[in-house]
Specification:
mainly alpha, about 85% helix, about 0% strand, globular
Length: about 160
């Protein structure tokens, strides 16, 4: 039993690490593209915001804070994807319906992320447009790709 759990953990970690990295790139690619074309925002602005969850307002003045923001974002995305992979290993419904389960997963990630930003004291007010953009980002550009990659990697392992 212990050996099986360890093997499942390794499988989830392998599938989730790659999927999380890919999901983080797709999610932020979409976000950063929209932020740039709509407001001229730079990637550094977004990642300083992410880093401000740990550093507070100092993140906007510290030279390397944006790099910390990238690290935080990737670590969170990989963690989420590994969690999804673990669930997919233990639920045939999740593993056999990656688009549906990935979209639901993306909604969960969006809601929990919003709660985390409120808890960290960095939440920015959501307009209906911003909420829609973030919901699309988390479902279409994170949840579904993560689910598709995880299920493909689990099948091939």
């Amino acid at each position: 039993m212990i050996r099986s759990r360890n093997a499942d953990f390794v499988r989830a970690l392998r599938a989730g690490a790659f999927a999380g990295l890919a999901g983080a790139i797709l999610l932020d690619g979409y976000r950063l593209f929209l932020a740039y074309i709509s407001a001229g925002a730079l990637p550094e602005d977004h990642y300083r915001y992410v880093a401000s969850a740990l550093l507070g307002s100092a993140a906007y003045a510290l030279p390397g804070a944006a790099y910390l923001g990238v690290l935080i974002h990737v670590a969170l995305a990989v963690s989420w994807a590994c969690g999804f992979a673990w669930i997919a290993l233990h639920s045939s419904d999740v593993a056999t319906k990656p688009i549906v389960s990935g979209a639901f997963f993306g909604v969960v990630v969006y809601v929990v992320t919003r709660l985390m930003t409120f808890a960290a004291g960095i939440a920015q007010p959501d307009t209906p447009r911003a909420a829609f953009v973030e919901l699309v980002a988390h479902t279409v550009f994170f949840g579904v790709p993560v689910a598709l990659i995880v299920t493909a990697r689990l099948r091939s392992a």
